[in-house]
Amino acid sequence: NYTLSDRVNAIQPSPTLAVSQKAAELKAAGHDVIGLGVGEPDFDTPEFIKTAAKAAIDAGHTKYTAVDGIVELKQAVIAKFKRDNQLSYEKNEILISAGGKHSIFNLLSAWLNPGDEVLIPAPYWVSYPDMAKLVGAEPKFIQAGIEQRYKITPEQLAEAITPKTRLLFLNSPSNPTGTAYRKEELMALAEVLREHPQVLIASDDMYEHILWAEFPFANIAMAAPDLKDRIVLLSGVSKAYSMTGWRIGYAAGPQPLIAAMKKIQSQSTSNPASISQYAALAALTGDQSCIDTMVQAFKLRHDYLVEALNNIPGMRCIEGDGTFYTFANIEEMMQSKGHASDIEWCAALLNDAKVALVPGSAFGAPGHCRFSFATDLDTLKEAVARIKDFATR
Ligand code: PLP
């Protein structure tokens, strides 16, 4: 009889992983399951990155590194922020971690106390609320529906901030909706944030490069440079370079905060894997055209999928700006099929049509489901055919 900590009892395992697991079980039992639940590109890691990793092993880069990452990689991250975002950081304002999620965890651990409020625009990436709870903080949600392209307004933000609010998450382009904030929209949010100096802004830019909108990428540090000392940018190589398994993420922010995050990292994981750091160094400093190849493929699939899903009775989705997800509103279909929740609908779809999706509830948006199109077009077409059949059955 194990009496576990309140800390672990307060959280749930990642629901996206739960869907993959159920799909894997059905597959193992011999069923032909189409998994559109996963959050990772289907492409292989580019060859030049793998070569750099092998070279790192041969060169003996197989020992502990500095806790906060090798100097060369920090410099590459600094150069990336200059090149892509026109932002300047010093080495002591950069922390390399074992994946984007680890960067976020370090930040929450270093910044939040029990009872502090964390503002999370919904639909949100599944992990934010539970990560906040893990450090004893209280997630508070701002709901943004399909009619506002799943983006919060300055009025909503102003209304949600309380004296206890210590952190705001922004994630653009967004997992799960695929929509991105324009610079002007971020400027409007910044205007509200200027009046609440106790609020730190965590900008999760993980999908920065997977963007095809007619407007360029912007984060809040680019939109409101005067707020830079209250902003932590969080990113990594997982999605842009198809490197989810290598586990390299990074954070950029004010020196005292980065130092505190480094202290947490030093007493938990120490440095991220040395070999992965050299691979990430190659990714950030090498030929960036590998990103374009992937983005073009994602855009083609996106265009196909959004149109095809909108042609299925009871399903509604909007054109995304980037990422490899589309978020469909299924309220009408749930009603016509007599499903009380999106969770029930997704379970029935997996069971009857053998298509695995993640229910919108996992992202704080009931009545929806998330499609990942990190899979080839033929598979997407087969999935659409199965869902159409399921919908009209
Ligand atoms: N942030 C967002 C919005 C994500 O979707 C993900 C991965 O799914 C992460 C962060 C974490 O990325 P990593 O695999 O590098 O930990």
Can you characterise this structure?
The model has no long low-confidence stretch (mean pLDDT 96). The radius of gyration is 21 Å and the shape is globular. Helix 7 (154-160) runs parallel beside helix 8 (183-193). The chain starts with 5 loop residues before the first helix and ends with a helix. By secondary structure, the protein is α/β, with parallel strands linked by helices. Strands 2-8-7-6-5-3-4 form a 7-stranded mixed beta sheet, sandwiched between helices. It has a 3-stranded antiparallel beta sheet with strand order 9-12-11. The chain folds into 2 domains: 6-44 and 289-392, Aspartate Aminotransferase, domain 1 (Alpha-Beta Complex); 49-285, Type I PLP-dependent aspartate aminotransferase-like (Major domain) (Aspartate Aminotransferase, domain 2, 3-Layer(aba) Sandwich), CATH 3.40.640. It has 15 helices and 12 strands. The protein has helices spanning 6-9, 15-28, 47-58, 71-85, 100-111, 127-134, 154-160, 183-193, 220-223, 255-266, 274-285, 289-310, 331-337, 342-353, 377-392; strands spanning 34-35, 94-97, 117-122, 138-143, 165-171, 200-204, 231-236, 249-252, 325-329, 355-356, 358-359, 368-372. The site of pyridoxal-5'-phosphate has 13 residues, from helix 5.
What's the topology here?
Blueprint: H1 6-9, H2 15-28, E1 34-35, H3 47-58, H4 71-85, E2 94-97, H5 100-111, E3 117-122, H6 127-134, E4 138-143, H7 154-160, E5 165-171, H8 183-193, E6 200-204, H9 220-223, E7 231-236, E8 249-252, H10 255-266, H11 274-285, H12 289-310, E9 325-329, H13 331-337, H14 342-353, E10 355-356, E11 358-359, E12 368-372, H15 377-392
The chain binds pyridoxal-5'-phosphate.
Pyridoxal-5'-phosphate binds next to helix 5.
